[in-house]
Every structure is written in structure tokens, then in C-alpha cells.
Design goal:
The chain has about 375 residues and is mainly alpha-helical. The protein has one domain (about 1-370). The protein has 13 helices and four strands. Helix 4 (about 115-130) packs parallel to helix 6 and helix 6 (about 165-180) packs antiparallel against helix 11 (about 300-325). The longest helix is centred in the last third of the chain and has 34 residues, at about 265-295. It starts with a strand and ends with a helix.
Length: about 375
Amino acid sequence: MEIFKPYGFDKIFFFTTLILIAVGLLMVFSSSGILASEKYHQSFYFFIHQLIGVACGLFMILIIVSIRKSFYQNPLFIYGLLLITFLLLAFCLFMPAIGNTNRWIQLSGLRFQPSELAKLSLIFFFSFYLDRKQDKLTNFRTLIFPLSVLFVFLLLIIKEPDYGTAFLILIICSIILFISRVKLKHFLILGAISSALFTFYLFQADYRMARILAFLSPAKDPQGSGFQIIQSKLAVGSGGLLGVSLGESTQKLYFLPCAHTDYIYAIVGEEFGLFGALAILFLFLILFWRGLIISFNAPTLFSQLTAAGLTLAIFFQAMLNISVVLGLSPPTGVPLPLISFGRSSMICTLSSLGILLHISQRKGDIRRKK
């Protein structure tokens, strides 16, 4: 039995999300205003597009939390979303390349990145499948179908290419399997296959190896492969404790590539200093903490797995992006959730948070009576 409390969602989780959105909008304008003015003759270009993504995402949250039924638990929704995501990922490979990549669907001037949707669809699918098959997970044959689906998606995303997102999805799905108490020997098989896949494609592209070598020793090629890492560290370091103040960053003046997307956290560190950078990290830790509480209090195994998967997807992506900015990990091209510019990322992230808020509205009688 479940009790649905309309708009009784986790308020701390929701208001933390709003704060991160507000900070993100502020930083997108600060980091992209000059670029937008020179490229599009409109300093608010990126800010307006980001605001559109925020508006769409908040509208999605409003719709999701107002629906009484757990629509995301319906098999037709889960498998339909999985099929649509697969078709979009496959279609991406035939779209015109942007920056030597095929990551976007482009229609009538609009662009959408299906790999962002892949995180959602795979979390729903794995949670649903493992919930239905929880009594048969000791048999590896039960895992053949979901793992086959996973590797097809990983292959399509790597071929875009989007190596970082593929790796992130693998980690998230592996954790969902771990929470479902899949046997260790099955993880060894998954690890062996995934290691072979990622190692093979790692050596298929010279720039991936160059990124790793630059991460290990960026000073060897300061004007080439090590440029982003060096400039990112300079941005963070120049901020000191309190920063140079909002809008006064110098690294965003074409010194730091992707200042409003992948490396926006470096601009946060430069303009708001160590305290500002730690404040952003603290907000993501709050989301992580409240997300795990939502998962723990969820009334069904499916809800628990879904909440845990969505929480970990957002938190791990944030930590991966921050680690790249600080030079603790090779560049991956993964944006900072709710902060970096990107409408696809914003809409999908806010939809994920909407699902988490919906789950937090549902209470189980059995769990409360214990």
C-alpha cells in the first residue's frame, strides 16, 4: 500500500535545486556574455537559451509532481522511452557533424542530445527489470538481456563519440546492479566485457590518448593537449579565497575553452574563489544526501533503485566534471549539471529531479509501521 501526498515532496531537495539553477543562470551569463556578443551580436544569447531550458525543465517538474500515478513505472512508458532513445541515438550517427561529433539531433534550428535521455531511460529500464527479476538474479542468464541493451547503448554513444557519458552510464548501471545484490562473479564478467570495450575504443582515437597523456603531464604540451588543463587550474588558482568578483574573470576571455560549458566550474572558482567553489560542492552534497534519503524511504524496490540511480547519475556527473576542472581526471566533455550551458542537459536533469520529487511524495504504510 502507498500513500500519495500531493506536493508533499522533499522541500530541502527542491530549494537546493532552485539555488543551483539560479547560480547556473548567473554563471552562464557571466562566462558567455562576451563570446555571445562577438559571435551572435547579443550578449544575452546563451543566457536566454539556458533560460528556455530552465523554463521547460521546471514545467516538467510541475507536471510530474502533480501526477498521482507512478507513470514512470508503467512497462509501456519504460520500454517506449527505451526504444525512442535507441532510435534517436542511432539517428544521431546520420546527422551532420558538429565539432567532428554526431551527438545532436537537429530539426528546425533546435538541437537535442539523446545521450542525456539515455541516462534516464536506462535507469528506468534497469530498475524495472531488476525489480521484476529479483528472485532470479543469481542466474547470469537473467542478466543477459539488460546487459545486452546496456552495451548496445554504450556502443552507440561511444560512436558519436561521447566516451565520458558512456563511461558514466556504465558506472550508474553497475551501481544499480550492485544495489540489487547481483553476485560478485557476475560483476567480474561485466567488468571484463566493459574493460575490453572501453580499452578498444580508447586506442581507436588518438585524441583520447592525448588527453590522458596531457592529464599526466600537461606541461609537456602547454599550447596543445595540455592547454585546457593548465588554463583551468590558472582560473581556479587566481580566484584565491574570495574570488575576483562576479564578471571579472580574465580566463573566460578566450584563454579557457568551453568556459560556459565543460569548464564553467573554473569560472566559478575564479570569480567567487575557494568559498564559492566549495559552496557549489556543498549544494551537490545536499542533493546527494536528500536523494539517498528519498531512495531509502521509497515504498517499492523499483522506486528505491530509480531514486538511487537518478541521484547517483547527477552527483557522479557533477563530481566527474569538477575533478576534470581541478586537473584530477582527464577531460571527458561531461557538463556540470544545472550549472553548465546546455538545454538538453538542463531539461533531462530537471526531469530526473522531478521524478525524485515525485517519489518523495509517495509513502508506504508497511515501512512506516515498522
